[in-house]
Amino acid sequence: MDLHPLTVHFPIALLSLYSAMELARLPVLMRQPFWFPLKAVLLIVGVVGAFVSLGTGEEAAEAAMGNLDRQVLELHENFATVATWVYTVLTVGYVLMWLDRSTSKVRSLPAGLFLVRLAGWIAASPLSMAFALAGLLLMTVVGALGASMVYGPEIDPAVSVIYHLLIR
Fold first, then answer.
1. How many domains does the chain have?
2. I want to staple 8 with a disulfide (CB 3.0 to 4.6 A). Which of 3, 53, 109, 138 is the partner?
3. DSSP line for 37-57
4. What pTM was estimated for this model as a whole?
5. Helical spans, DSSP H, in 64-111
6. Rounded CA gap, 133 and 86, in Å?
């Protein structure tokens, strides 16, 4: 049974929502006490789901090996892996910052101050917006390549453009 279609959409939704929230930067929302933990939960659950999706994608690729264009499949896998790691970097920053905010025990670790500064650099600076945008763009490419394998490269204009930019 191909579990990939069942596992891939939930992390996409969570990580896309995180990216939209990170890119919006609405001051009224950023002052809310729930804002940071909400983004952190979206990232944590989304990244766990993304790693599950990578695993089910490997199984789906093995099952359909002869029926797929190998070049498209490899690009799809590579972009999915990079997107997952981009969001993982953000997640590490958010987890460290969240732990520091809630317990301050991160600072007591041997490299604690470095970790806290690193977390702030990743999660509380404009760099988080760049990572969120990069992750969102990477996921768009992943989705377009996945759609081109399932439905064909001309399923819609966006898929067609991305497919023809990357596949020669």
1. 1
2. 53
3. HHHHHHHHHHHHHHHHHHHHH
4. 0.89
5. 70-103
6. 10
